[in-house]
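haha ok so turns out i had the wrong file open the whole time. this is the CORRECT one, sorry everyone. sequence first:
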Amino acid sequence: IDAREAERLGLVNYAVPAAELDAKVDELAGKIAALSPAVLRLGRDAFYSMSDMEFERALDYLQSMLTINLGSEDAIEGVRAFLEKREPVWKGK
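then structure:
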């Protein structure tokens, strides 16, 4: 299948012409860089930890990680910033 079909099927998030690739990468990197480093770290660690778990255990683990994440200072700041219509100020906690 080609890239557009892979995008249509949901196998990839984006299919862009080669000439637009650098701009798309810059856009996505900017979005990631604007996120909380602490929340990204928790998500990355959870992803790798769950890769060897059985499905039910992985779900339980994910639920506990989400609870930890939602209680973090950065998660609270993210909600506040959204409600106040401003950019968040991440503390990395």
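The two ends are 43 Å apart (CA to CA).
again sry for the mixup
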